[in-house]
Amino acid sequence: MRRRENSVILLCYPYAFSHKDFFMDYMKSIKLIDKLEASGTLEKEEFVFLLSHHTRETGEYLFEKARNVTNRYFNGYIYLRGLIEITNYCKNDCYYCGIRRSNRQVARYRLSPEEILACCDMGYPLGFRTFVLQGGEDAYYSDETVISIVKSIKAKYPDCAVTLSIGEKSYESYLNFFKAGADRYLLRHETADSLHYSRLHPLGQTLESRKSCLYALKDIGYQVGTGFMVGSPFQTKENLAEDLLFIKELRPEMIGIGPFISHHDTPFADQPSGSMESTLFVIGILRLMIPNALIPATTALGTIDPDGRARGILAGANVVMPNLSPQEVRKKYALYDNKICTDEEAAEGILQLREGVEKLGYKIKTDRGDFNPLNSKM
Ligand code: 5AD
What we know:
378 residues; 2 domains; TIM Barrel; single chain; alpha/beta; globular; binds 5'-deoxyadenosine; disordered N terminus; 15 helices; 6-stranded parallel sheet
């Protein structure tokens, strides 16, 4: 019967053959999205198929499911984190990153412990209950310094969570930061394929070391965030599928996904940036894979498109991270070109942000917004 229907289509339309293929691919994608929703994962080849046949229609189908899952687990709330970019000094030389060691054009800065605390002082009355201390790998911040910064924030604001995002450290350092009161740690794996990793980083930076840091952080008890860029140079659909499977294995509490955006003073200056659409698609997939994960609508997503962060929320993201860094350093923390530093992006624009989120049908939540493991069985 089906064969007969197909031959009718073939006779009727001059382009029916390609339409038929298109329809079959669409139907297969829909089935895969249903399977992903039901089981939380797919086989590698299935992810590759889904990513390779992404269309506006499959995107819409995925995003609706992702939104439903987000609403079920987070009740329409969007979580707030205050981002403090503590230093743009970095000993690493990642080929994609604007603050890489070899970039002599960067005006370097670092914030003193007092300046960091002043950022928290500004954020607290605005409703921030999580402070994310992010920076390059900068030896100025010895373990003792990090520990004392964490302790002073926690002493002054015991109802706040402190998230660190300061790169690869030893197990012992991570443990000491945790004992000092750090709650969470962000460290993107960047790519789960070691060959791809070696094309994005110089010799001496390895996927193996990145992964062992992530497992150490998990072992210690941090809420751990990982993630990657969509559309990074040389990235294949297979690489993306491996990223998704790695995330399924690690089970991070937080997942940061943004498009790669080229920076003019890096070896990747001429590489094309990733697209908003493919980034949104990956966010939707991850929401179905880890329903209770905290997934930010990242600054990079907002940079690639003015609607990026709103679209991120509508694709399943549930966290926003306005910038709490002092005004004068924001532009200097340029990992990529044209980073947004608008009022709405900055913490001062919290009212505007609240309005924007409410227009989408969500509400901003101003508590710590911890990962909720109890939800995972829902
Ligand atoms: N484009 C987009 N994201 C970038 N990052 C670094 N450089 C870029 C870029 N050019 C991301 C990396 C890093 C995070 C802090 O920022 O994934 O882990």
